[in-house]
From TrEMBL:
Organism this protein belongs to: Burhinus bistriatus
SUPFAM superfamilies: Translation initiation factor IF3, C-terminal domain, Translation initiation factor IF3, N-terminal domain
Positions of the Translation initiation factor 3 N-terminal domain: 11-78
Signal sequence bounds: none
Keywords, ordered alphabetically: Initiation factor, Protein biosynthesis
Similarity section: Belongs to the IF-3 family.
NCBIfam families membership: infC
Molecular-function GO terms, alphabetical: ribosome binding; translation initiation factor activity
Protein name: IF3M factor
Residues annotated as transmembrane: none
Length: 129
């Protein structure tokens, strides 16, 4: 099972790395420190540790307030809404040029429903023999 990317939020006390690069709530770098030091800092200032980048060495964590985490989650959700959908549904309908009037009306209604649902519709008309 592939490892899923966790949602943006506090990691709590479960930090799998020994050495971390920590950034304070104002965005200033506090440098590399041991996991225990970062947890102590987190408790002293009543903040939460949030993983920003784990593909670098050492991984980057940021100390944030609950309000900052909430605002960041809202920003990411808004950005995700704005991006085009990757799973765009495309519907395809194919019929002959000798189609009966009733069948044509039925298929036209179906196309209208798909367009209302924001599906991409592809219509193919074959020439009758």
């Amino acid at each position: 099972e592939p490892k899923r990317k966790a949602a943006f939020g506090s990691v709590g006390r479960r930090i799998p790395y020994r050495i971390l690069h920590v950034i304070n709530q104002d965005g200033e770098s506090l440098g590399n420190m041991h996991r225990a030091e970062a947890l102590k800092l987190m408790d002293q200032h009543d903040l939460k540790l949030v993983l920003l980048r784990e593909n670098v060495e050492p991984p980057v964590y940021r100390l944030m307030t609950g309000q900052q985490i909430h605002e960041e989650q809202l920003k990411r959700a808004e950005k995700k809404k704005g991006s085009p959908k990757t799973g765009m549904v495309q519907k395809e309908l194919s019929f002959s040029s000798a189609i009966a009037k009733n069948d044509l009306e039925t298929k036209t209604k179906q196309i209208a429903q798909w367009i209302e649902k924001k599906h991409h519709v592809k219509v193919t008309i074959r020439q009758a023999k």
